[in-house]
Write a structure and sequence with these properties.
heterodimer, A: 398 residues, five-stranded antiparallel sheet, 6% helix, B: 296 residues, mainly alpha, elongated
């Protein structure tokens, strides 16, 4: 009896020690696919901001950061069974929908009817009625693989990149596949469509250019950067600019894919470079922001705003370059690279999503330009700051 | 603080992956061997501690008989005996505890190195200590149709991946079996140390089996390779080689037989070190290595 008790006691101690060891060591593990996506969208003639993250797609009222209320045809707020206002929310876990969202929504104007298309990580596109926030077909339009990046579009097609590799062009009206191009590496950043050519980078190091009409190669061969491409290319003035995880920035001829210039930064570039007023701005994962001469890729100035990295692209306004770092801070720089101000999102949640600039819209109740930041913390999923003063205007918790 | 352990290990694993022809399994195997090699002094210590404790078992049994009605005196006498023979009853546990941070670091290294989503991979940017290794990213994480970054359960992996947790359990149990010296006679229910050992022999395989079920397949590969190396370390040939390469320091402790003989007549010896020293005075030094050889 005594021995059995001792045996059990030691067993319990062993299990507790093991559980503690596992809990302390394994807790910091990063479990997750990607980060939230923010997009401006018009629903029922009202400006809204759609945030898509994990199993949620929610349209926010940008004036106050609440989930937008659904209106009926007469303009009255729709009520649920409990007489509460119905909100524009889609729960990917409800009703056996089984959907996860990491990409921006698409708006389709189909036969005088507007629909919202939600790309998912769950092998389907969901078509949603914007007036009721109801999914038309729970099964959705099947696609070949999970989607983790934003979908690009031109007047005819949606260009859908897949996390595990390959891109398809879907007819915008029918959502049927027009062509498919296979790549050996996944596509984790949004393709860019310029002048009938689709440009994108893959995680197995290549930059591709395809003819949007038929999916054939527009360059003699894809360009090998020798490093993972996590950010979208920038296509401007006949050149393609793209960064990679070997701390490099490339300038390619958009017509031929030939290397024109190459620059070296301090860490991985995981975002799309931005061109404004003849200067290219880019940030890296060591927390530096760079102003770069787009002709030579020479660094004009560089400023470190955080010891943690910067994932999203810099947002350039008339007066500021605004970036958000992984330590939950938003930084305002002057156009000469000087630090102007810095704001911390409460709790310091990781910020990886692209920032969103909302211009003032007095009719919609937006009295000043806003900078919207999406975080990994559901308690502060979206936070709005004044673009001019950096004052926090609202915060949305899911 | 963990990053001080994680980051070099992640960098080493990715470097090994590149050196070994972009083969992550080879990388995990070689890294496991390197870790086993680095912790080998601890393993030797653990093996020798277990051996010495085993050698003292006859003396312990005598003490248990002698002080069966006085637990306090029994405890004092046991401590004195351990001290006299230079045995730390917890000496075998410490090396095991040190394995935990290594296990956790290895888990993290596999997890980060095989990052398979944008969210995981973004974090690798500040973990690689050699910038140029980024050209190897993303690592090939498929092996025999299994995704090494996923748990072995469907739908993340095919059903046959469940063989890995089973192998983890089996090899953990085997390693435990070979590492614990065989006991002569039936188990004594009052032998606390033996009870603990038996508990661990049941708990460890089950625990590691469950861990393997919920963690990535890559970690199961690490467990299996690590266990197989552990089993090899206890083979007579490797043991003999170890004793040859790392001879045990001679101890100035009395022979176990003499201790048992002395117990028959003497009262309880105080656990004070001075007394223990005095009682060992004049005895012939004898190394545990020799004693072990004799036993064999």
């Amino acid at each position: 009896m005594n021995a059995s008790r001792t045996h059990r006691r030691w067993a319990l101690i062993g299990l507790v020690v093991a559980a503690l060891a596992v809990a302390t060591g394994c807790a910091p593990i990063r479990i997750g696919v990607a980060w939230p996506a923010l997009a401006p969208i018009t629903i029922q003639d009202q400006p809204r901001v759609m945030v898509t993250y994990n199993n949620w797609a929610v349209a926010l009222n940008p004036a106050n950061g609440t989930a937008a209320e659904l209106l009926d045809v007469a303009g009255n707020v729709r009520l649920d069974n409990n007489n509460q206002p119905r909100r524009w929310e889609i729960d990917g876990n409800a009703n056996n929908l089984g959907a996860q969202f990491f990409s921006r929504p698409l708006v389709r104007n189909n036969l005088e009817q507007t629909e919202i298309i939600l790309p998912t990580h769950s092998l389907k596109l969901l078509v949603v009625d914007p007036d009721t926030a109801r999914v038309d077909n729970m099964a959705g339009q099947p696609v070949a693989a999970p989607i983790v990046a934003d979908v690009a579009e031109d007047e005819n097609f949606y260009f859908v990149p897949f996390e595990s590799g390959g891109i398809v062009a879907l007819n915008k009206q029918t959502l049927l596949e027009a062509w498919r191009f296979n790549t050996s590496g996944g596509i984790w950043s949004a393709p860019v469509v310029v002048d009938g050519v689709v440009y994108f980078g893959t995680i197995d190091h290549f930059v591709y250019a395809l003819n949007a009409a038929d999916g054939t190669l527009a360059w003699p061969q894809p360009f090998n950067t020798e490093g993972l491409i996590g950010g979208s290319p920038l296509v401007a003035n006949g050149f393609v600019y793209v960064g990679n995880t070997l701390d490099r920035l490339f300038k390619l001829d958009a017509a031929t894919g030939q290397l024109v210039a190459e620059g070296r930064l301090r860490n991985w570039v995981w975002s799309q470079p931005v061109l404004a007023n003849g200067v290219m701005y880019v940030a890296d994962l060591s927390g530096f922001v760079y102003a770069i001469n787009p002709d030579t890729l020479a660094i004009l100035w560089e400023t470190q705003v955080s010891s943690r990295g910067i994932r999203p692209s810099p947002l350039v306004t008339d007066n500021f370059i605004i970036v958000a770092s992984r330590d939950g801070k938003v930084h305002w720089l002057g156009l000469n690279g000087s630090k102007v101000m810095e704001r911390q999102v409460e709790g310091g949640p990781e910020i990886l999503s692209e920032l969103l600039y909302l211009p003032a819209n007095l009719e919609a109740g937006i009295n000043e330009p806003l900078i919207l930041v999406a975080t990994k913390d559901m308690g502060r999923l979206v936070v709005a700051f004044s673009e001019q003063t950096g004052t926090q205007r609202w915060s949305y918790a899911r | 603080m963990w990053d001080l352990i994680f980051n070099p290990l992640i960098t080493l694993m990715i470097w090994l992956y590149g050196v070994l022809g972009n083969n992550i399994i080879a990388g995990i195997v070689v890294l496991t061997l390197l870790i086993r090699l680095a912790t080998y002094p601890l393993t030797i210590k653990q093996m020798r501690s277990a051996r010495r404790t085993q050698e003292l078992q006859p003396a312990i049994k005598k003490l248990q008989e002698k002080y069966k009605d006085d637990r306090e005196k029994l405890s004092q006498a046991q401590m004195a005996l351990y001290r006299e023979h230079g045995v730390n009853p917890l000496g075998g546990c410490l090396p095991l505890l040190i394995q935990y941070p290594i296990l956790i670091a290895m888990y993290q290294a596999i997890y980060y190195a095989l990052a398979s989503t944008p969210y995981q991979l973004v974090d690798l940017s500040q973990r690689l200590l050699v910038t140029d290794l980024a050209r190897l990213i993303p690592l090939e994480n498929m092996w025999l149709g299994m995704d090494l970054t996923q748990a072995p359960t469907p739908p993340g992996n095919p059903w046959y991946a469940l063989a890995l947790p089973a192998l983890v359990m089996i090899t953990t149990w085997l390693q435990f079996k070979v590492s614990v010296p065989a006991q002569s006679g039936p188990p004594d229910p009052n032998d606390q140390a033996a009870n603990v050992t038996r508990s661990m022999g049941t708990i460890m395989p089950i625990m590691f089996g469950f861990l393997s079920l919920s963690f990535s397949v890559g970690l199961s590969v690490y467990f299996i390779v690590s266990n197989l190396v552990g089993i090899l370390q206890y083979s007579p040939q490797v043991k003999a080689l170890t004793d040859k390469l790392f001879p045990e320091k001679p101890r100035t402790a009395p022979r176990v037989e003499d201790t048992i003989a002395a117990m028959a007549t003497s009262p309880v010896r105080s656990p004070k070190p001075a007394t223990a020293k005095a009682s060992s005075g004049g005895k012939t030094p004898k190394s545990a290595g020799k004693s072990y050889s004799k036993k064999k």
